[in-house]
Amino acid sequence: MDVRRLDTSGLALVLANDITEIAAALPAVQSFAALAGLTPRVQNRLEVIFEELASNPIRHGFTPGSAQRLEIAITASADAVTLVFEDDGPAFDPLARAAPAPLHDIAAAPEGGLGIAMVRRLARSLRHEALAEGNRVTVELAR
Q: CA-to-CA distance for 72 and 11, rounded, in angstroms?
């Protein structure tokens, strides 16, 4: 994990294709939340969204053992927190899938799509863009 910037203007990270990078990056996300003066509720939402959207390309998109990477930028304004995830994995729009049906038993839930459904509920907006080589997912979280 490479922290490119951590100050009041934002946080910029680069994560390698290794799921342990997410846990290693979480203290930087928490430090940014404190610098930005986020409330505990918004900080919790930020952490959940960060963990979910950082894990998706590593778990489901990247080739195991490859040098693929994920770049993440987080900024805060007076009314919002914006997260931008850019990966160099295969094209995949996580928002193209229909939202799963409401669950009555989490143990019986089908695999896939539940994390994105949770992010949709927590975020003010969520969008995907296909890049020439990879994907960009942008999330806006109300402050």
A: 8
